[in-house]
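Q: What would this complex look like in 3D?
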Amino acid sequence: MPILPSGIVNQAQLAEDVRRVVAKLDTDEVRSVRYRIGTDSTGEISIFFRIILSDAASQESRLGEVTGRVSRVLFDEVGSYEKWGIYPYFSFRSESEQAWHYDGAWA
Amino acid sequence: MAYHDELLQQAVELAHKDPTSPKQVDLRRAVSTAYYAVFHLLISETISNWSRASSRDALGRMFDHGMMKKVSRRISDPKLFPFGGEDSILVQNLKTVAQSFVQLQDQRHIADYDNATFWTSNEAVTEVTKAANAFAAWKSIQNENIAQDYLVSLLIRPRD
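A: Here is my prediction, written as structure tokens for the whole assembly.
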């Protein structure tokens, strides 16, 4: 049970919160969501989401809307910043990009 | 065209320079440039409020990346900024600007310094789009009090 800045957080609780929110996302758009806890460029404890989108959702005409909406849902509904002061960061790849340049951290 | 607009345009061009075989140098510079576009947008908007034009460039040098990020993070804390009675759309647009700044600054750090990180085209385009969305969100709120208060706060170290 790691001690985080704004209190003691059970990682199982965080995982459950993430799982609950991810279950609400459209599987036609979001293929997988992974995360890790680490520090950002200014040394603040943060949560880094790596999100793989379907190729259809990754079309540039949709990318801004989809990534903005998914980020907002994860930011607001997981609520890691509000509850524990852990700021969330989001990165997005397409399915075909992950297949082309496999990275285990995203899988 | 203002400098921040040129930076955003350059970021778009770098992210799309070679769609079939994108080079890491172009994608990383696109992400870095997208951050600097938003950074200079916020500085430009702040210093334009200073009535004496000859002092504006000097005022612009007062901005600190770390402090701007710290202030921008706090905008999303409802305990510090409940925004009671404010139009929810205006508040969401302000949060879009502030959150984009925070996200882009961290990605800029990775793009500029972390040689171990491989960038895909989508990742870079996402960050450039984030900057473009921040520009659009800013344009819709730039004359609102909450937006102008945010600009002032970027120059004031918050009390923890």
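A: To summarize the key features: Chain A has one domain: 3-100. Chain A touches chain B through 26 residues (CB under 8 Å).
Q: Very helpful, thank you.
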